[in-house]
Amino acid sequence: MNIKKTTNTFISLVNNDLNQKTIDTINKKNKQEYYIKNRLCASHEYIDTNMYLFKALRLNNINYEINSNAFFDLCALIHQAAIDNNFKNIQDTKFLDNKINHLEINGPNGLEISRDCIIEILLSDLQIAKILGSRQQVYFDGMDLVSSKWDDQTIARINYKKPMIIKDLKNEITKKR
Length: 177
Fold this sequence. Notes:
A hairpin with a 5-residue loop joins strand 4 and strand 5 (153-157). Helix content is 53%, strand content 10%. It is elongated, with a radius of gyration of 17 Å. Strands 3-4-5 form a three-stranded antiparallel sheet, covered by helices on one side. It has a two-stranded antiparallel ribbon with strand order 1-2. It is mainly alpha-helical.
């Protein structure tokens, strides 16, 4: 899965249907305290962004059950990256990598993003994918990330007692292998 390409597809679809003045208004509103505090996006006042997200995912051959947690997590990631980059195409992969690496995995109410989405995000990093193997080889057994490439051994573990981000999990994977 190429999150950068899918995010840029989403941004392009939105930009194709909105004029620059509207994009500027959305970006300006998104920087207001009210929108930040309530985790809102002004784009919803002008368009149905979910329609654009569905289309971007479909155009990039990313298939999820529409009602799955992983699907909603991925949509939220793409949408937030677009907001943070002011609905401009993402050229620098460091921007998106940083965004992805700082996604919270768990919080006071348990997992913040689904296990399937965590796996997809991890496998989008080529270095991590080399360690873990293919999507068919990687799974969660409770909070343990396991790979059949390593004889179904635990490669990393989500610590439910402390907050973790994707980067923490990647560090644990690279240290073990």
